[in-house]
């Protein structure tokens, strides 16, 4: 038997045993490694704990869709690249030590997972690979049928397709993208527990869930990570979500940690977004709200000067400083921006600086909702009770 296949069998045995545990196996553990985790060779100095994982403090979000031009790879905003450069960007991130890669079935749909899968060939074992299921997407064509679908048989189908696209034998962290109100979360967690027994999924998370749903899911199979929007621009998780994570030993990943680019200083009071730019439909970026919200950018730019850093670095370092188990996943199509974001891991605030910055931040009231109404309506949802 080759060493590779023996390791593979050992890994699956460990996973099967871990999946049988009913409590978060990492809670209270001095070493936050996943059994058989690809992150196990990392040094701890440059990493932080994220639920069961040890990861570099800054991850990489890969949320791309096809652009109008042939071969174009666009983000949700105004940035564009192509497939070759997107692959090179991910490889560059891994070479520089980034270990948390985030994507989703819905990004493209399928395109982002395909790019990530190709980029990780040969370096797969160096990263925590996270992706998401949960939207009702036609498996063959990738057409969105509208709405959500977390029925267990659909989850199984999606995971098998994701493993093929990602060119891997396991997903390290699989999120439910949005809670499906029609499917009891116990059924979702049960399906994932089965996938964990089979070694196809190592850990799971929830994105923008209702808090009762988190507790119910956690009782069936430990929730590893919650992924919600969190940034200097949107601090909603501080009230109830972060305390719940702390209580249950769940890691927290921040999406849109740069406020969809707003916190980088690239948006001004007079910026008007193209209709293909997602920000055109976001109330907090509507002209009146945008002008009012620029005081936050002024604050971030002031701190960037003071700390000899960039605004993006201030925004990311501020998140990292909130809790040792928080990891932002900035999205970028640009290697220079990637480098800048990675360097934020070396930036810290003294206790006095943190206090001063927090007081200044608290004085700024953000105007306008964080998401368009139909998108916002799908957040904080509780799954139907199991009868
Ligand atoms: N769970 C969910 O529901 C959910 C929702 C949204 C996003 N996400 C995840 O979160 C990730 C990040 O969120 P996001 O992309 O929405 O927002 P973000 O990370 O807050 O902002 C991304 C934007 O900032 C720009 N940017 C990045 N670094 C920069 C830098 N150093 N200087 C100047 N501009 C910079 C990018 O443009 P350039 O390409 O030009 O750098 C891009 O337009 C996504 O990729 C996705 O994986 C998850």
Q: What are the distinct ligands in this entry?
A: NADP nicotinamide-adenine-dinucleotide phosphate
**Helix-strand sequence:** HEEEEEEHEHEEEHEHEHEHEHHEHHH
CATH level-four homologous superfamily name:
NADP-dependent oxidoreductase domain
Q: What's the end-to-end separation, in Å? A: 48 Å
What integer is the average pLDDT? 91
Largest beta-sheet details? 8 strands, parallel
**Any idea what the radius of gyration is?**
20 Å
CATH architecture: Alpha-Beta Barrel
What would you say this structure looks like, in words?
Helix 8 crosses helix 9 (311-322). The model is unreliable at 1-23 and 28-45 (pLDDT under 50). A hairpin with a 5-residue loop joins strand 4 (65-66) and strand 5 (72-74). Strands 3-7-8-11-12-13-14-15 form an eight-stranded parallel beta sheet, covered by helices on one side. It has a three-stranded antiparallel beta sheet with strand order 4-5-6. It has helices at residues 3-20, 83-95, 111-119, 152-166, 185-197, 211-220, 241-248, 287-306, 311-322, 335-343, 351-362, 373-376, and strands at 48-50, 53-55, 60-61, 65-66, 72-74, 80-82, 100-102, 128-133, 135-137, 144-148, 171-176, 201-207, 223-229, 251-255, 326-328. It is globular. The chain is built from twelve helices and 15 strands. Residues 61-63, 75, 77, 79, 102, 207-208, 227, 255-261, 264, 266, 312, 329-334, 337, 340-341 line the site of NADP nicotinamide-adenine-dinucleotide phosphate.
